[in-house]
Fold this sequence. Notes:
Blueprint: E1 3-13, H1 19-24, E2 26-36, H2 41-44, H3 56-66, H4 74-88, E3 93-102, E4 114-119
Antiparallel strand pairs: 1-2, 2-3, 3-4
Helix pairs in contact: 3-4
Amino acid sequence: xxxxxxxxxxxxxxxxxxxxxxxxxxxxxxxxxxxxxxxxxxxxxxxxxxxxxxxxxxxxxxxxxxxxxxxxxxxxxxxxxxxxxxxxxxxxxxxxxxxxxxxxxxxxxxxxxxxxxxxxx
Length: 121
């Protein structure tokens, strides 16, 4: 099995249900796990990018989605990212797991973050 993880991608997004959240913006941390449909150790030993999943374009896509001004919920953000990756890499991936953690919460209390996780399995 080949599992690729993109860990702790950090962005400042203008998401949130409340106007003040959208105006100020929110710090979000995104983690993505990509599980390949096939893993061929011999192919990996060739040391060629085309034998694996290029995660550079995935990062750029995530950055673009996070910058959209029309997203309010982290659940929506995670689902948009999941859908984009699933559609773009349909032939290569068996499963995708996306987690989005929101750091600055408009809650009157002590809480580190809120996090959602979505998967296509």
